Amino acid sequence: MNTNITDKKYKKLSIQVSLTGLSFCCFDTLHNTIVSINEIHFDTFHKSTKIEELFSDAFKNYPELNDQYDEIQVIHNNNLSTFVPTALFDENFLGSYLQYNTKVFETDFFAFDEITNYQMNAVYIPYVNINNFFIDQFGSFDYKHAHTILVSKLLDASKNNDTKKMIVHFNPGHFEIIVIQNQKLLLFNSFEYKTPEDFIYYLLFTAEQLNMNPESFHLELLGAISEEDDFYKIAFKYIRNVSFLDVTDLQKNNTFSAAQNLQHFILFNS
Q1: What is the domain extent for residue 53?
Q2: pLDDT in tens, 158-170
Q3: What tens digit of pLDDT does each residue of 31-47 get?
Q4: Pairing of strands 120-124, 111-115
């Protein structure tokens, strides 16, 4: 990472990592634009393969990852996270906040991101082995959780909107439900799924818990989902007002399609 003002490159690298692959984009920080986006899927690999080896291959195949940058941000994308209001937060008990929604081990390493604008913290388990790999590659970098960026941006966008809104962020294998009303986070939860029926069950169950009527509430979708997906079709069948999140403002900073902005919403906002 480059911090010397005379050597400034006006380039930033953001890498979003998970156990199924990584995606990364390069920013031109002088013009505040996104220059490129790449996505690497770890398709079926042998159980004995170390995740570091897969990342190492990616660095060999994509020279942009070895360029010089002023700033490098690593974004951990998993469903091992939760949000804690600042008033209830104690840095010494990070594991206890996660024990209600994930299996926690004594050997786990916990981290947290402060979200000062909204008086809360995101507590999560980062991929330590992946961080160690990046230390060897870059020396220094910043890291945070994908949900920190996601929820912060959605809360920003809800300003002065008193309508209770449900937003679903879709990933392979898991999705997040976020319910927001005028910059207040009413609910955040992550669910693992296999079928469209799993998906709609969790959606309608959550709506029922929050007294949200499928005939009237607004559902907005983003992430890895399109109108052709069975997941979209089943949501459209049971919920009257379904649309994709409006990414018009985000598109002003790049030349990519609306679908790409929806899929890489977190990365593009990092």
Answers
A1: 5-78+127-140
A2: 998 898 999 999 9
A3: 999 999 999 998 766 66
A4: antiparallel
Instruction: Output the domain CATH number for residue 55.
Output: 3.30.420.250
In a shared domain, residues 92 and 192: no
Q: Is 76 helix (H, G, I), strand (E, B) or coil?
A: strand
Prediction pTM value: 0.93
| 243: its two tokens | 């649309």
Q: Are residues 198 and 259 in the same domain?
A: yes
- Give the Å distances, CA to CA, from 162 to 21, 156, 249: 38, 13, 21
Pick the closest to residue 214 from 225, 226, 204 (CA basis): 204
Going by pLDDT thresholds of 50, 70 and 90, the confidence category of residue 151 is: very high
Structure tokens that stand for 94 in this block: 């990070």
Is 187 found in the same domain as 134? Answer: no
Task: Evaluate whether 170 touches 264 at the Cβ level (below 8 Å).
Answer: no
Q: For 92-232, list the strands marked E by DSSP.
A: 111-115, 120-124, 142-145, 165-170, 174-181, 184-192, 218-223
